[in-house]
Write a structure and sequence with these properties.
single chain; 245 residues; mainly alpha; Zincin-like; globular; metal ion binding
């Protein structure tokens, strides 16, 4: 998740009487528990309008998002704009989240201000949606499952492209992409789970190799839009190759 997962499971298990319950990241998405605003109010709210317009542009033109939408459809999980995306106000540190309880992607309208950011957040969360669709992911109790999806999302969404890392003033040579993926996966876990940094690091390290090398549905690490377009084209041709066998 983009440093946030909106999920609504039961209370977390307690290790001790004084341990605070894990809210599973809901504190980052305060609008999740509010009564929906009327259409008129939302239409007059600039952030909401801008979010909806940027979302539509992403879904229609971004090759990362288009590939994932088609992969979800082929997996039996068709995504509908009005049903599976929600523009909401969030905590100041997050761009979006995936609500596994409702199979809905939350887009933080007060934090997403650029189309490139919207593209990246939607892609990141669609990867979580794809994992949710194709696998029995235990988002609530198994931190390794969460770690695996966070690794895949950081690896395949463009979060760790060279330009994004330069914008963060992070530079590296050999192995920097892997370092970025690991760091962002740990950061996302810590944002949505009340676990220690050591627990998050251990979970990520234990599943890193397998999950980093799981490139579905892209078939490659799309380092830029050109890579994503080639991956999308290859994905569209998969059925044609199979049909001719």
């Amino acid at each position: 998740m983009e440093e946030g997962a909106a999920e609504s499971p039961p209370a977390a298990e307690k290790k001790g009487a004084e341990e605070e319950e894990d809210d599973f990241g809901y504190r980052l998405f305060p609008d999740r528990n509010k009564k929906p605003q009327s259409f008129l109010v939302r239409s007059l709210f600039t952030f909401h309008n801008r979010c909806q317009l940027m979302l539509r542009l992403t879904l229609e033109t971004n090759p990362y998002a288009r590939l994932l939408l088609e992969a979800l459809k082929q997996s039996g999980c068709t995504v509908f704009n009005d049903r599976h995306f929600s523009c909401e106000n969030c905590d100041g540190c997050v761009g979006g989240g995936f609500d596994a309880a409702t199979s809905q992607i939350v887009l933080c309208q007060n934090n997403i201000r650029r189309q490139s950011h919207m593209n990246r957040v939607v892609t990141h969360e669609l990867i979580h949606a794809f994992d949710h669709c194709r696998a029995h992911v235990d988002w609530f109790k198994n931190v390794k499952h969460l770690a695996c999806s966070e690794i895949r999302a950081a690896n395949l969404s463009g979060d760790c492209t060279l330009m994004n890392e330069i914008a963060r003033f992070k530079f590296g040579l050999k192995g920097h992409h892997q370092t970025c993926v690991r760091d962002r996966a740990i950061r996302s876990i810590l944002a949505v789970r009340k676990v220690s940094k050591e627990t998050a690091e251990k979970a990520v390290d234990e599943v890193f190799d397998a999950c980093f090398n799981d490139l579905e549905p892209f078939g490659r690490i799309p380092h830029n839009k050109a890579d994503a377009k080639r991956a999308y084209r290859d994905f569209q041709n998969r059925d044609r190759y199979t049909a001719n066998l």
